[in-house]
Amino acid sequence: MVCPKRASLDPPLGSKFRFCGDLDCPDWVLAEISLLSKMTSVKMKLLVVQVIDSIIGGNIDYNKVFKLTSDAKYELSDVKASIAAISFIISSSSKYAVDGESLSNELQQLGLPKEHAGALCRAYADSLDKLQTLFKAQSLRLPTLKDSQWRVDYLLSSSELETIAEPSVTLNLTLETAVPKQTKKKPAELNADGEAVASQEAEQAQTVTSNVAFEISSDKFRLLFSELKHAHDVLSAV
């Protein structure tokens, strides 16, 4: 059997990778490259498909995973490490919108054989749209203004105070944050015999409402009002 050719496990000093957000590749991921190389490229693609399905919302079929990794003589810890590394590579690449060809080149720089990198990236490219849709739904969403109330406090006179403070404005904002509906699952666990323990899934959807109240001086309120009015005029002109 001829082993596939692969590059050195040590990337050039100072190398940055797009799938890592233009940062160094984490050491733990780099350490798993040689482990992934023990599989055939065909079986690796099937393993990647299993991992992608779990990211999108399904479950990993561990019985199938053990069959795929049996030839490489993976132990239980090896299986978990491989799944974690592939999950990181796929998730991070999708979040940073890395195309399949670029990802393949970067994985080869890390020492993954060309055939294996190509197999991983083909499965990645086939599911890229679904992955990006998922991560977009899970991304940061800014709250919207549902309601606002205001109050002006001004003391006209007082026998207890020598100096009357300037007017102040109290604003009470009601903010609403929509949490997208998604499947929240409990990852399947492996027991000591390497058997998968069934996971549970539950769909959750909710809208979170919060109140923000603050007090500002009349001068600061006038400045804030002027800035908001200017922003409103700009938006109206668009």
Please explain how this structure is put together.
Residues 144-238 form the COMM domain. This is COMM domain-containing protein. InterPro entries: COMM, COMMD4/6/7/8. It holds the Pfam family COMM_domain. It comes from Capsaspora owczarzaki (strain ATCC 30864). It is a single chain. The chain is built from seven helices and five strands; from the N terminus they run H-H-H-H-H-H-E-E-E-E-E-H. A three-stranded antiparallel beta sheet has the order 1-2-5. By secondary structure, it is an alpha+beta fold. Helix 2 packs across helix 4 (76-95) and helix 5 (100-109) packs across helix 6. Strand 3 (189-190) and strand 4 (196-197) form a beta hairpin. It folds into two domains: 18-137, no CATH class; 144-237, no CATH class. Helix content is 45%, strand content 21%.
Features:
two-stranded antiparallel sheet, 21% strand, 45% helix, elongated, 2 domains, alpha+beta, 238 residues, three-stranded antiparallel β-sheet
